[in-house]
Design a protein that fits this description.
It is a multi-pass membrane protein. It is found in: Membrane. InterPro entries: NRAMP_fam. Keywords: Membrane, Symport, Transmembrane, Transmembrane helix, Transport. It is built from 18 helices and no strands. It has a single domain (2-339), classed as Orthogonal Bundle (Hydantoin permease). Helix 2 (15-23) packs across helix 14 (279-309), helix 6 (83-120) packs across helix 7 and helix 7 (124-141) packs antiparallel against helix 15. The protein is 79% helix and 0% strand. By secondary structure, the chain is an all-alpha fold.
Length: 406
């Protein structure tokens, strides 16, 4: 099948790079830019923490997929014996990932549309509809390998430019290292800190990673497959975190302490030290690629998560699988075209995510300690120490975020 071929080819590049491409979207660029402009280098520690937390959680999710050949949502559905607890978890997954990704899809399409608008002109709603159609057609025919490869390369190229710009920009390295290794929370920075972590430690990426890893069936031993995916994921996520760090730092060097606040049409100013007058066009191209990559990845992850949570086959050729990703794209496209700001929906998704991420992190720890699931590949002591630290930190931030919404 085309989808099976696509998964095999994607896995050669590694699921980690698909995960990294998924979280380097318009939201990450915007959040990191605003963090640097408003708080300088003070929140870089949150970027470092989010990268380490993501590597730890994504490794556990991928390990579950490789060894059990099941997605995370499937395991959640099968392992919970209490019907009440099972349906509570399913409800959170539907709210946080199903409804949430449908709302966030509008942001992905809008970001990609803004990139095209800045490059070619035209109306944003029409570009959003066109991009929604491209995402739907791409997922419908199953031939996403070539497009995903091209988009990932372009996103990585944009990432390289941010990193090189960071190197040649007028960065205050004393402040930078202080921000990286001395945690601090300036006044009114808590929500920005949560947003920085939230753009990297994303619940739906845990479901996507486990499902893609479960498809990674080769002639090599489970140990070799797992080792390959662990290295791939650590490298890809680290590169993604370096990009976020570079965006925060170049934004701090450009705007922090000035009376000018960055706007969407001026974010490209960060790239001017390297690209000069070409900065706006290059940034627009990168924004288009980042947005479209996320617009394709988010519906795919939603289908894996919801089908698994509902106990249905996670078969990309099944009607339910296709119905879910199509619904996400249609909903996001409609919000873009009608220029509706789904504030209440996003608030619901944020509240659900605030509960879901700590719960999924706890479940990952639990599953990864089960000998009947992972055998010799279950967690070691250092896995549990690091994982517990991440769970406690993410739980505290998640519940603070939940409380702050009410």
């Amino acid at each position: 099948m085309q989808w099976e071929l696509k998964v095999r080819l994607t896995m050669k590049m590694g699921p980690g790079f698909l995960i990294a491409a998924a979280f380097i979207g318009p939201g990450t660029v915007t959040t990191a830019t605003m963090a640097g402009a408003q708080f300088g280098y003070a929140l870089l520690w949150a970027v470092i923490f989010s990268v380490l937390a993501t590597i730890i959680l994504q490794e556990m999710a991928a390990r579950l997929g490789v060894i059990t050949h099941k997605g995370l949502a499937e395991l959640l559905n099968q392992q919970f014996q209490s019907p009440l607890l099972k349906w509570f978890v399913i409800g959170l997954i539907v709210a946080a990932i199903g409804i949430g990704n449908a709302a966030y899809e509008a942001g992905n399409l809008t970001g990609a549309a803004m990139g095209l608008h800045n490059l070619l002109g035209g109306e944003l709603p029409l570009w959003s509809l066109a991009l929604g159609a491209i995402a739907a057609l791409t997922l419908a025919n199953g031939n996403t390998k070539s497009l995903q490869t091209v988009l990932t390369i372009l996103v990585m190229l944009m990432s390289l430019v941010f990193i090189v710009t960071f190197v040649i920009a007028d960065v205050d390295y004393a402040e930078l290292f202080g921000g990286m290794f001395v945690p601090q929370l300036p006044d009114a920075s808590i929500l920005t800190t949560i947003a920085l972590i939230g753009t990297t430690v994303v619940p739906y990426n845990l479901f996507l990673h486990a499902s893609l890893a479960a498809k990674h069936k080769t002639d090599s031993s489970p140990h070799d497959r797992l080792k390959h995916i662990q290295k791939d994921s650590a490298l890809a996520i680290s590169i993604g975190g370096l990009v976020t760090l570079a965006i925060v730092s170049t934004s701090a060097a450009t705007w922090f302490g000035s009376s000018v606040a960055p706007q969407m049409d001026s974010i490209a100013e960060q790239l001017r030290p390297l690209l000069g007058d070409y900065a706006p066009a290059f940034f627009a191209l990168g924004l288009f690629c980042a947005g479209l990559t996320s617009a394709i990845t988010a519906p795919l992850a939603t289908s894996y998560a919801l089908c698994g949570a509902l106990g249905k086959p996670t078969d990309p050729d099944s009607k339910l699988f296709k119905f879910i990703w199509l619904s996400v794209i249609l909903f996001g496209s409609a919000l873009c075209f009608l220029a509706i700001k789904p504030i209440s929906i996003i608030l619901l998704a944020q509240a659900a995510n605030g509960l879901l991420l700590p719960l999924i992190a706890v479940c990952l720890l639990w599953f990864c300690n089960q000998a009947n699931l992972l055998g010799q590949f279950r967690n070691k002591l250092w896995h549990n120490v690091l994982g517990t630290t991440v769970v406690l930190t993410v739980s505290g931030l998640g519940f603070f975020k939940l409380i702050s919404l009410f």
